[in-house]
């Protein structure tokens, strides 16, 4: 050990050294003491929607703003809309290929590439939005979705719910099952398969081309979303019948993230991205409900000729039967499809029991 004299000597030498340093001018830059901020990680996002599309596009813009703020600028997202990448229905392929890191779209658009993707948007006669959100986050839905998307090298997350969708805009009334024969309708997802089984001719058309397709009789009817987004599309000017929904009781959009991009992010930025996706998805659900309420009030006031209809019971019974038969066929053809279909069915039985004595009972028992 050092003696007291040695300690005093070392202290004196240190003082001299410090004094000498403080007299040196200018002080050489000390890189370690003033760290430069790390270069931000910039992720590219492709969305199916056109530029600044309300509600859907707001979700991606809010995601970009939120991750930048939450990460203090370390994580940034740039957004390319359909006008830029020109492939509204190519979002999965582009994220899969690594051309984009993130996508915002709807899972059922990929049914032609992988039929098992179509169960994760909304299924006819299936879960309402709150029931489906419960299934996704707590009933195993996200795990099943990931099982399907793993082979595509992407992660999939809920991306915002539109709530119950309207059955669509029709130029002619549908009074019987025969009226569906040959009906050319824009309707994606499983509902399109159901209508095809009853003799209709379903098709999918990108949002930007919908109005023209209906106006030029390329199609006889279409469904898009509901008042939240239908009002601005102007369909009410060319098709007077607005049918209530059966086909998309709680449409959830989707964020997809390239697996390699995800693996390359530090843990905290992954948490920020996951949390921000969940936050904007929830925000979109509230916003979509709000805009539907506002817009439907405006539509009733400004366009009193719009006729709200519900399909006759005979038609709904036929649609439900076709739906059940198709589900049985899809389940028999693929064990993963069976697992998803069974999960949705058992969750619906359980969730609907609660819905029946809560929201449904409440609405049915409102006094005049
Ligand atoms: Ca729709």
Instruction: Compute the CA-based radius of gyration.
Output: 28 Å
Q: How many domain modules?
A: 2
Instruction: Return residue spans where pLDDT drops below 50 for at least 5 consecutive residues.
Output: 10-27
**What is the mean pLDDT?**
92
The biggest beta sheet is recorded as: 6 strands, mixed
| CATH topology term of the largest domain | D-Maltodextrin-Binding Protein, domain 2
Shape, principal axes of CA atoms: globular
How much helix, percentage-wise, in residues? 40-55%
Strand content: 5-15%
What is the class of the largest domain in the CATH system? Answer: Alpha Beta
Provide structural commentary.
It is a single chain. By secondary structure, the protein is α/β, with parallel strands linked by helices. It has two domains: 41-163 and 250-290, 3-Layer(aba) Sandwich (D-Maltodextrin-Binding Protein, domain 2); 168-248 and 302-353, D-Maltodextrin-Binding Protein, domain 2, CATH 3.40.190.10. The protein is 49% helix and 13% strand. It is built from 13 helices and eleven strands. The chain has helices at 4-23, 56-70, 82-85, 91-96, 129-138, 141-149, 189-197, 210-215, 227-233, 259-264, 267-302, 313-333, 335-364; strands at 41-47, 75-80, 102-105, 154-161, 168-170, 184-186, 201-203, 221-222, 241-243, 252-258, 307-309. The strands form two sheets. The chain has a six-stranded mixed beta sheet. The protein has a five-stranded mixed beta sheet with strand order 2-1-3-10-4. Helix 2 (56-70) links the parallel strand 1 and strand 2. Helix 7 (189-197) crosses helix 12 (313-333) and helix 9 crosses helix 11. The protein is globular, with a radius of gyration of 28 Å.
């Amino acid at each position: 050990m050092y003696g007291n004299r040695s300690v005093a000597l070392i202290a004196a030498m240190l003082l001299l050294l410090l004094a000498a340093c403080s007299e040196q001018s200018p002080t050489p830059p000390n890189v370690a003491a003033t760290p430069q901020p790390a270069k931000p990680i910039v992720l590219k996002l492709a969305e199916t929607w056109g530029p600044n599309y309300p509600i859907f596009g707001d979700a991606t813009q809010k995601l970009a703003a939120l991750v930048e703020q939450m990460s203090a600028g370390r994580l940034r997202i740039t957004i390319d809309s359909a006008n830029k990448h020109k492939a509204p229905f190519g979002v999965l392929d582009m994220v899969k290929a690594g051309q984009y890191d993130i996508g915002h779209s709807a899972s059922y658009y990929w049914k032609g590439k992988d039929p098992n993707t179509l169960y994760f948007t909304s299924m006819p006669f299936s879960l309402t939005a709150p029931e489906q959100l419960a299934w996704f986050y707590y009933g195993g839905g996200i795990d099943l979705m990931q099982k399907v998307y793993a082979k595509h090298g992407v992660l999939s997350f809920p991306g915002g719910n539109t709530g119950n969708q309207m059955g669509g805009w029709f130029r002619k009334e549908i009074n019987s099952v025969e009226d569906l024969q040959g009906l050319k309708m824009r309707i994606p997802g499983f509902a399109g398969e159901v209508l095809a089984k009853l003799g209709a001719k379903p098709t999918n058309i990108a949002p930007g081309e919908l109005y023209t397709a209906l106006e030029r009789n390329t199609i006889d009817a279409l469904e898009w979303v509901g008042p939240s987004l239908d009002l601005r599309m102007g369909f009410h000017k060319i098709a007077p019948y607005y049918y209530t929904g059966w086909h998309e009781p709680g449409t959830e959009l989707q964020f997809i993230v390239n697996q390699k991009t995800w693996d390359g992010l530090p843990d905290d930025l992954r948490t920020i991205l996951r949390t921000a996706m969940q936050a904007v998805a929830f925000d979109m659900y509230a916003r979509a409900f709000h805009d539907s309420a506002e817009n439907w009030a405006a539509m009733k006031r400004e366009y009193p000729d719009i006729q709200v209809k519900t399909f006759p019971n005979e038609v709904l019974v036929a649609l439900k039967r076709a739906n059940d038969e198709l589900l049985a066929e899809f389940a028999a053809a693929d064990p993963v499809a069976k697992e998803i279909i069974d999960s949705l069915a058992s969750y619906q039985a359980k969730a609907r029991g609660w819905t029946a004595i809560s929201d449904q009972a409440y609405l049915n028992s409102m006094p005049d």
